Structure formats: C-alpha cells, structure tokens
C-alpha cells in the first residue's frame, strides 16, 4: 500500500460549527428576552403598581407625578382636618388640634415612591406593577420639637409627676414625705397614635385617647425607711462632742438637727450636713475670733501700723465630715477630735511696717456748689474710699471699692452727663470723687491704668485733668507701681446754700517722685447745637463750645532736677448743647 492509498480527505469540524450555532441561537433568544424585559420596564416607567392604594386613596397605574397629585387631592380634607386628643383618666376637655400643632405632615412623594411609583429595573417592582399593588399607609413626617411641645402640654394638663419620698429634719424633729407614683405620656406612643389618626379614613378614627404610663418615684417607701433606720433616727439619738485641740464642745440634737438633710442620689437617700450652718453653730459656741490682717491707718493725723490679730482656725469641711461620721455611732462613742490651729493673719504687723507708709506725698482738693444729692453721694463715696491701702503692685479701682451706686449702698438720685446731656440718675456727683482721687494719684506719680474725662468740660475741674466714672462701664484705676504701700485718705465737708462743699484726697506713702505738670492752650473748638427734648428727666442747659487740650506730667526724683520721664494726656471735649425742655408728648391730655 502506497502512502497515497492511506491518505484520506480531512473531515469537517462539525462539533465546532454546531457549538457556534447553538451559541448564536441562545444569544438571539437572550437578546429577544432582554428586549422584552426592556419593553416591560419602559412600559411600566415610573407608574405605581396597579391596584395600589395609600391610606385608602387609589393611585394604582398612575405615573409618579399623577399619583402624587391624586394623593394630595385624596388626603387634602384629612390633612387639614383637626384631631381630637384626650388623655385617659383626665377630666380635662379633649384638645382639638390641627396637624401643625402636633408637627404632622404627609410626604406625598415619599408615599408614592414607597408604593413603587419610581422608575427602576428591579424585577420585583416590575412583577408588582403587572400583578397588582398593595394597600399602604401614607408616609408621615413628624416635627420632633412640635411633638415634644405637645407631649409636655398634655403632661402639664393631665399628667402628674412622681413624688419622691423624703426624710425631713425640722424644728420639731424628723418627719417623712410619702412617695407617690406619677403619670406621664410616652412620646413614641403619642407619635404612633397621632400618625395613625392623622390619615385615618373614618372620622371616628381621628379621635385619639392617649394612655399614660405609670412613673415610679426614684425614692420609694423602702428608701425612706432605710434613711430613717440608717441615719435620721441614730443622728438625733444623743448629743455629739467635738474636741477642738482638747477642748470639748457638746452639740445637742436640738442645736444641729436643722443642719442635717438627706438628698436623693442614684435612687437612695444620702446624708448631708450643711457645712456653713454647722460652722455658724460652732462659732456661736466659741470665743475665738478669725484672724485680722494688719494694716495702716491715720491716727491723730499721722500714719500708724494697726497690728494684726491671730485667731483659732479649723477646716469647716473637715469638721463637717467628722461630725457626719460620728452621728450614727451609739451613745458613749459620739465624740471626735477636731484638729484646730492658731491661725496667723495673712498680712502681718511686720508686713504692714514694711509698706513704708510714712508721709503725705500728694494731696488734692476740689469744691462743689450746693446740692443735697452732692452732699449725700460725694460724702458716701469719700467715706467708703477713706483708709484704703494699696499694696505695691496692686491696682486701685474706684468702682470696685465704692460699689454700685444704689439706694441700698447709701446713694441717691442726682445729675449726671449722658451723651453730652445733663440728666438725673443714681449716684450723680460721684465723679467729683473720681476727679479728686485722679489728681491725688496724678501728683503722687502713680501709674494711670484707666481714666476717662467727662464728655463735656465742667469748669470747676482742672481742664484736661479730671475723670468720671460709670458703674459697669467707666472706671478710675491707678496701679501702685512703687516699692511702698499707699494709703488713700479723704476729708469731706458738706455744701450749704451759702457755702461750697469741699473734698480733699491725700496719698500717704514714701515719696518716690516729684511731679510737675503743664497744660496747653485750648484748640480745635467746636460749636454747640440746640436740642429740644420732651423727656421726663430733661434739664435745661445753656450750651458752650467743645475743644481739645493736652496735659503733660513730668517725673523727677525727689530733690533732683533731671527729668526721668514724661507723659502726655490728650483730651477732646464735645460741645455742651443748649437744651430746651418741652412737656413730654401727650402730657396734660386727659
């Protein structure tokens, strides 16, 4: 057999070609199926599944927009209607509420989307569309703030807070307050009930009766009894002895019982003692004094050190803790040693001597015309400031020392300047004290921390070298930047209808500076205006011009000619307007 006899023609690859045909057929079928599914999805679009109802409103088969419109129309009456809300067990009349009162509103679009009214390729949604929808409830939005306000309102009208039990210490001994259950509404239950009633189809279903829940008190009867057994009764069973550095002090239950209490903490009553009341009781039964700091005062016209005084000292918190601990012990063991020490003054006699307050280093006097309010207010401010000691590095504040100008603080109504206009207010005239003190500190060479000139110039004061104060807004402050203490001394004389009043402020210390001053000519004058006021406290005034002025302060060492430093103080005064007073609008009309 020749090789040619064995050769056979090649067989066609039937298996490969057949597979391609099958794949083509399957692909074609898949394409046809996909096209059909796409056609179904396009036909459904964003329509709501057929047969769908939301809170009883038929929206099936509609596009999303049409379904929203149908839902708005179908629920309009219910959304605008009122709800009748009552609380079970309450005698109060039921509330007729608009949905807005409860913070309720229907989200129509969300309701339609929840019903399937949105464009999607989800086969489950397409199945629902072609096989029928469901009966659903509308999506209701609730404003938490409005709901909380409604729950609070209903609780106030129909609820009752729980009452904690108490153990009370009083003049007659110990007594108790019985605990009581309370009633309150559960906000989540209220929300669910209101949501259901809001979109209910039947009018009867729009009536809501809320059932309060029982609120238990934090402190119940068992807690009260435990408080009596564990603390209250033992505490008042016998006297307590406190030993101060070996000296016994016996306190009887009638003396201390009103300093005791029991407070609720984490569902239990815990004993408390009023530290301040106990300390007052201890102090009333002892002869020891608190320590008194040393100081410097003028005696017969000369500065003199007033020695400090030590006192017996104890820690009130430690005493209270020891006292509380011993209260529950049985009789015969109700004693405790209290550590007491001799308390030395914070500022000793030696410290006062070291201040070096030896001589008057400056003094300034101002005068004022008669007015009884000036006598009262300037005199009171001078009285308070008199004897003030300013230690090295400390800052003097007129407002802090004098305090608020009130009737209780000894001040009366007088004339002040407000926005360039003279009006009446409490404390009028105190700026006389500010100006006089400012000049005394000025010539003592003390550091000017804060001062403000009057808005308009008052001619009884040195031009450009005066000060005003306003409680809570404008202060006079100077710092003692020397190495010595400063004593502020005041002398005051009342004005009379025939004589001026006199105020002198003197600074006592050790002289650090020789101070000289210079004042410029007035410049940049501004003309006054005329105002007609119809206010109750209007004061007439003849106007005068405003201007600017400069003042210099020169510092030299005592007895030396060399200038060490200088300061320039610039002041702008506004015009004092002419004020014409007219009756307030409507005055005299009946």
TrEMBL record:
UniProt feature coiled coil, ranges: none
Alphabetical list of InterPro entries matching this protein: Glycopeptide_resist_protein (IPR052913), Vancomycin_resist_VanW (IPR007391), YoaR-like_PG-bd (IPR022029)
Domain YoaR-like putative peptidoglycan binding as annotated: residue spans: 264-331
Taxonomic superkingdom: Bacteria
Keywords recorded for this protein, A-Z: Membrane, Transmembrane, Transmembrane helix
Pfam families from the UniProt entry: PG_binding_4, VanW
Chain ranges passing through the membrane: 21-40
Alphabetized PANTHER family for the sequence: EXPORTED PROTEIN, EXPORTED PROTEIN-RELATED
Name the record gives this protein: VanW family protein
Organism: Nocardioides kribbensis
Lineage, opening ranks: Bacteria, Bacillati, Actinomycetota, Actinomycetes, Propionibacteriales
């Amino acid at each position: 057999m020749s090789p040619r006899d064995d050769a056979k023609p090649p067989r066609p690859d039937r298996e490969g070609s057949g597979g391609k045909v099958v794949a083509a057929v399957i692909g074609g079928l898949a394409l046809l199926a996909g096209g059909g599914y796409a056609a179904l999805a396009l036909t459904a679009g964003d329509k709501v599944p057929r047969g769908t109802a939301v809170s009883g409103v038929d929206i099936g088969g509609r596009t999303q927009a049409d379904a929203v419109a149908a839902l708005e129309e179908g629920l309009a009456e219910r959304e605008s209607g009122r709800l009748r809300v009552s609380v079970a067990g309450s005698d109060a009349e039921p509330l007729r509420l608009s949905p807005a009162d409860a913070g309720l509103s229907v989200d129509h679009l969300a309701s339609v989307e929840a019903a399937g009214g949105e464009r999607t390729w989800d086969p489950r949604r397409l199945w629902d569309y072609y096989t029928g929808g469901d009966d659903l409830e509308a999506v209701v939005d609730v404003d938490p703030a409005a709901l909380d306000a409604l729950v609070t309102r209903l609780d106030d009208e129909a609820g009752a807070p729980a009452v904690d039990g108490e153990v009370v210490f009083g003049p007659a001994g110990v007594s108790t307050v019985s605990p009581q259950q309370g009633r309150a509404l559960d906000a989540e239950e209220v929300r669910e009930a209101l949501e259901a009633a809001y979109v209910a189809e039947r009018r009867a279903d729009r009536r809501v009766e809320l059932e309060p829940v029982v609120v238990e008190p934090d402190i119940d009867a068992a807690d009260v009894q435990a408080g009596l057994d564990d603390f209250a009764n033992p505490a008042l069973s016998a006297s307590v002895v406190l030993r101060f550095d070996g000296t016994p002090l016996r306190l009887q239950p009638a003396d201390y019982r009103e300093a005791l209490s029991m407070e609720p903490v984490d569902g239990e009553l815990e004993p408390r003692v009023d530290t301040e009341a106990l300390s007052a009781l201890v102090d009333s039964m002892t002869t020891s004094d608190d320590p008194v700091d040393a100081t410097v005062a003028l005696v017969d016209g000369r500065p003199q050190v007033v020695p400090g005084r030590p006192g017996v000292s104890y820690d009130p918190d430690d005493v209270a803790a020891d006292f509380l601990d011993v209260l529950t012990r049985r009789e015969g063991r109700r004693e405790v040693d209290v550590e007491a020490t001799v308390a030395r003054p914070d500022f000793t006699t030696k410290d006062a001597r070291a201040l070096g307050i030896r001589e008057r280093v400056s003094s300034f006097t101002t005068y004022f015309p008669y007015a009884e309010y000036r006598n009262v207010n300037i005199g009171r401010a001078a009285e308070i400031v008199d004897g003030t000691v300013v230690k090295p590095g400390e800052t003097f504040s007129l407002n802090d020392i004098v305090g608020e100008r009130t009737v209780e603080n000894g001040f009366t109504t007088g004339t002040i300047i407000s926005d360039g206009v003279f009006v009446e207010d409490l404390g009028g005239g105190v700026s006389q004290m500010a100006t006089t003190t400012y000049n005394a500190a000025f010539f003592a060479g003390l550091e000017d921390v804060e001062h403000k000139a009057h808005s308009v110039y008052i001619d009884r004061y040195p031009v450009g070298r005066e000060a005003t104060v306003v409680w809570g807004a404008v202060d006079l402050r100077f710092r003692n930047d020397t190495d010595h203490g400063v004593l502020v001394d005041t002398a005051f004389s009342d004005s009379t209808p025939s004589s001026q009043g006199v105020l002198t402020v003197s600074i006592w210390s050790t002289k650090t500076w020789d101070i000289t001053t210079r004042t410029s000519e007035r410049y940049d004058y501004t003309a006054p205006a005329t105002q007609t006021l119809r206010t109750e406290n209007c004061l007439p005034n003849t106007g005068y011009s405003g201007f600017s002025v400069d003042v210099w302060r020169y510092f030299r060492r005592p007895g030396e000619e060399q200038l060490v430093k200088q300061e320039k103080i610039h002041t702008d005064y506004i015009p004092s307007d002419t004020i014409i007073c007219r009756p307030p609008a409507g005055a005299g009309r009946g």
